[in-house]
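Archive record:
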Amino acid sequence: MIFPKYLCFPRRVQLVGACVTAFSLVYAAAAWGAPNDADRATARQLGYQGVEAYQANEFEAAEDKLRRAFDVVKVPTLGLWLARALTKNGRWVEAAEVYREVARLEPTEGKIEAQREAQRVAASELDALARRIPELVIAVEGAASSEVVVEIDGVRVPAAVLGAARPTNPGRHSVQGKFGKQVVEQTVELAEGQKRPVKLVFKPAPAPPVPPKPRTRVAPSDTEPASNAGTLRTVGWAALGVGAAGLVTGGVTGLLMLKQANDLEDNPYCQQDHGCEPPAHGEVDSYNRLRTISSASFIVGGAAAALGATLLLTSGGNEDEGHAVSATVGFGHVGVRGSF
């Protein structure tokens, strides 16, 4: 097939060999299989028009036509020209990606050597372009990167790449960060090969209010006295019971002691002024034990009964309940009197 004359560039001939046109679409498209004949014909015409526009320094039109053609037919020669158009339009980052895509293509049919030569030229041009691409390093201060929405010219930047050098096209750019209701914006001008840091400073978010500690509710004033009164009454009744038992024990042992004393008076081995003889010592010992037990029981029982009665009388519960309680203690007996 014979290509139009304007597809051959003398200076490009030295780079790509024998006057490689921008694309050998008819031959190379078959390697991809997807486009049909009509698609390949359309892409070929777009490619021709794109190269014409490039020659006329109409780089925006050239980029548009070459991109559409490359989207249909992925051949290295077409990608090479698209990358050149992008470079002319200042879209260096996008051009570098197309150069890399060209390098990954695998020509299988058509003018394979011409396609491979286009790949070698693309690699060389990419190496020269990469050194010219400026970089932005965006840092966030006053907030966590994951909590800030950062955009460059309206395009969101992933939080994971913040702080890393980001290839950016030359020229003026707007860098904006949003943190809650705070919006911070900077305008930067990037020159060829420049590496520019940009810091977005935010006011730290106010700390959440500390919830007040729950106040301990104090029981009403009458609850504690009522509880204490109940405890005092319980202890009082228990002491009164102990006292009653002690007094009963003292009374019983006292009666037994008196009986033992009468028996000793009638014992022939005991004389009133001279004591008892050995045969009566056992009864004497029994008398002494009963006397000790009786005395101790009366003392303990009386004290416990008195304590119990005092607690019952001073607990205050009897007044609230409408009761009147009093204790009676006597020789050999203990009792409680009251009205209910």
